[in-house]
Design goal:
This protein is an alpha/beta fold. It has 21 helices and 16 strands.
């Protein structure tokens, strides 16, 4: 068969067969690399050709007349500079994975205090001071706590994270190097502590944070209190700040990689294959958390559903929703999202988010609400991943940690700290707009009112392990160890029923919350109050008008012509 009569397909096949196999392998490798480059959202070449490895500018969103920006944020060099991620992990997924598997966190040892909540739960408070990382520095004597003015930063970790997380250690080490104190408020059941009540934490449960902050403020009344929330912890923090408004002892806060709207984040994390991978990893972490506390979780929630959960939404449906007494998962997400509380934040708040965050999408950021609040500075970067923000060629530091540290240092030397102290009273009333209506964490009085215990006794601190290093056990330990730890905690904890109650109730405790509620309604609902007044005048005018007309007729009868009266 000559070439003229040959089939074009046979000629093509003959030509392809003459290509060396190594060239096909090279083409396959190149195709795979292009796919991987786009799948992992790597931006190495973008950084090289478009910015010359100078990084992208940090975008700031704030109120045009914000005093916080002009007096504090304007002095933060990092917020007005550029952020360049580490070139060899220039991908949100690579950064996030590197933080989880390697971290490169400093070696620090906390001192643990066990705190007993009003409902009988136990929270591990891990403290770190400058004497723990700097040689030659000694602790302050306990007799001088009331006069101690050393700033304290309360840190709230993310979902299923505790004080052992790499990003928490990075933050704590950076803060205490400035001579400050750091206390990591671990979520219930995390940090190697057993669940000692039927109460579990969730993304909208702020009562634990409120109780811990009030307790620390009572122990260190002269110390400025700051707070940093990360991921789910930032959602809890922002929601708490919005609930308490000016009545919080916190003088400054930072929310890093906040989810803002849990419903939007739930849709986002199930949108693409790479996001579904994060969803699965988070689900495994939640199942491990449930496994640690199986004895209680299996009694209160759907244990079979928990074991077979394939996503965070499935876990929330079988566990979180049931424990929190929510009707649906969406109602739990809507109720717990902090986006609706942003406008009520009344303390200086720095919010940091990466636009390429693979877990907490930028679509959920409440841009307009942040811009409308003079107390909020929103800093967004083009890259950074989730809680990573690695910088430098060696990837040993986190950009957001330095940004938060700089913001707090500038805030401490500003008038905002003194302004916050003037607003705070010696004793804070129980916030009325709290999350205690999430049930089962409510107390019903005989008169039908829903209340929460707001005064924490000093003996709520169950155990002081300040001389012992914090050891984070493996999450796969046998549950019997957790039971033994739980029994050990209960034996050392004084019963709340044994506390002597005052003979006469404090009238101020009863009046102040009601007065605060009336003030909040009058302040937040001015339009509604005027509208109600207009409706009242309109509906009662026929009766009032008739009575007024009759009164005027009798009063001015001698002045009105007889012809008009007969009409």
């Amino acid at each position: 068969m000559d070439a003229a009569s040959a089939s074009p397909y046979s000629l093509l096949f003959e030509a392809l067969s003459s290509v060396p196999p190594s060239h096909y392998l090279l083409l396959a490798l190149l195709t795979f690399l292009v796919f991987l480059y786009n799948f992992l959202e790597i931006h190495f070449f973008s950084d090289l050709f478009f910015t010359g490895f100078r990084g992208d500018t940090v975008s700031l969103t704030y109120h045009s007349s914000s005093h916080l920006y002009h007096s504090v944020a304007a002095r933060c060099r990092l917020l007005h500079g550029r952020y360049l991620s580490t070139p060899w992990i220039s991908s949100p997924h690579l950064q996030t994975a590197f933080l989880s598997f390697f971290g490169r966190a400093p070696d620090i040892t906390y001192k643990r205090h066990l705190f007993r909540t009003p409902d009988g739960g136990t929270i591990a408070l891990d403290w770190l001071t400058d004497s723990d990382v700097v040689e030659g520095v000694t602790h302050v004597n306990d007799t001088t706590l009331n006069c101690d003015k050393t700033p304290i930063v309360v840190v709230i970790p993310g979902l299923t994270s505790d004080s052992s997380a790499a990003y928490i250690k990075h933050l704590a080490f950076k803060i205490v190097r400035q001579g400050w104190r750091v206390v990591v408020c671990n979520h219930r059941g995390l940090g190697g502590i057993s669940i000692t009540s039927d109460c579990f934490y969730n993304a909208g449960w702020t009562e634990d944070l409120r109780t811990v902050i009030d307790q620390i403020h009572s122990q260190y009344p002269e110390a400025p209190l700051f707070s940093v929330g990360t991921s789910i912890g930032s959602n809890i923090l922002v929601k708490y700040l919005g609930e308490d408004g000016v009545n919080t002892p916190i003088v400054g806060a930072a929310a890093v990689c906040c989810p803002w709207d849990l419903l939007i984040c739930d849709r986002f994390i199930n949108r693409r294959p790479v996001q579904k991978l994060y969803d699965r990893v988070l689900t495994v972490g939640l199942q491990g958390y449930a496994q640690l506390h199986q004895s209680i979780m299996s009694r209160l929630a759907d244990w079979e559903g928990i074991k077979t959960s394939r996503s965070v939404r499935d876990f929330d449906n079988h566990a979180t929703r049931v424990l929190g007494k929510f009707e649906t998962v969406d109602s739990y997400y809507r109720h717990s999202s902090c986006a609706s509380f942003v406008r009520k934040v009344s303390v200086p708040l720095l919010c940091i988010s990466a636009l390429d965050d693979p877990v907490c999408t930028w679509e959920a950021i409440p841009w307009d609400e942040c811009r409308a609040n003079e107390n909020i500075i929103l800093a967004t970067t083009r890259h950074g991943g989730h809680l990573a923000f690695y910088e430098g060629i060696s990837a040993t530091s986190l950009w957001w940690v330095r940004a938060v540290d700089g913001f707090f240092m500038a805030l401490l030397s500003s008038p905002f700290v003194n302004k916050g102290k003037k607003v705070q009273g010696s004793t804070l009333p129980v916030p009325t707009e709290s999350s205690i209506n999430q049930g089962p964490y409510v107390n019903f009085a005989e008169d039908g009112m829903v209340t929460a215990i707001g005064i924490v006794a000093t003996d709520n601190v169950v155990e002081d392990e300040s001389n012992k290093p914090v050891v984070h056990p493996n999450k796969d330990n046998d549950t019997n160890l957790e039971t033994e730890r739980s029994d050990h905690l209960i034996e050392k904890t004084p019963q709340r029923n044994e506390l002597t109650q005052p003979s006469f109730p404090n009238v101020d405790v009863l009046i102040v919350p009601i007065r605060r509620r009336v003030d909040q309604l009058s302040r937040q609902n001015k339009i509604s109050i005027w509208l109600l007044a207009l409706i009242a005048i309109t509906t009662t005018w026929p009766l009032v008008g008739s009575a007024l007309g009759l009164f005027l007729q009798r009063k001015f009868k001698s002045f009105i012509p007889t012809a008009l009266l007969r009409r």
